[in-house]
Design goal:
By secondary structure, the protein is α+β, with helices and mostly antiparallel strands. The protein is 61% helix and 20% strand. The chain is elongated and about 100 Å long.
């Protein structure tokens, strides 16, 4: 009988020991996963927050651009484009440059628009392409920032 009790005691101690090992393993796994998650968060997401704080310092500015009225390069030359737009600029410095260099900016846009045929600007996806071309041309000209987007407020082809 004494040997049976000692066997039961050993079994109980073994199960207690196994359950303790299991609890420690689970706790260690949770701790390591939490530490890894914290590391990943601070390593990868902190940079985004810093970049956002820097961008917040220079708020985008919307600059209206005077209306353009240009002949399209269609055969026969009977079509024209009337375009009014606004530009989202990266900051006040660029807005000042934009205003002081209006003649260069207008010239670049007029040259681009007048080189287009009706078929090149007729569809919505063509207008999106035209926006990207205008942004590209403007960013080549400016030095104190970046043109982030263009918004067409009037687009008339006749």
């Amino acid at each position: 009988m004494a040997s049976e009790r000692s066997d039961e005691t050993k079994d109980t101690e073994n199960t207690k020991s196994s359950s303790m090992k299991l609890i420690l393993t689970v706790a260690l796994t949770v701790l390591l996963a939490g530490g890894g998650g914290f590391f990943a968060y601070t390593k990868f997401f902190k940079k985004d927050t810093d970049a956002h704080a820097q961008a917040k310092g220079s708020e985008p500015v919307i600059q209206e651009v005077e209306t353009f009225l240009v002949n399209l390069s269609d055969p026969g030359g009977k079509r024209y484009l009337k375009l009014t737009m606004k530009a989202r600029l990266s900051g006040k410095e660029l807005q000042e440059e934009f205003v002081s260099r209006t003649f260069e900016i207008r010239d670049a846009i007029i040259m681009l628009l007048s080189s287009k045929e009706f078929q090149e600007i007729a569809k919505p996806e063509d207008k999106a392409t035209l926006k990207q071309e205008i942004i590209f041309q403007l960013n080549r000209l400016v030095k104190k920032g970046q043109v982030q987007d263009i918004y067409f407020t009037e687009f008339l082809v006749q």
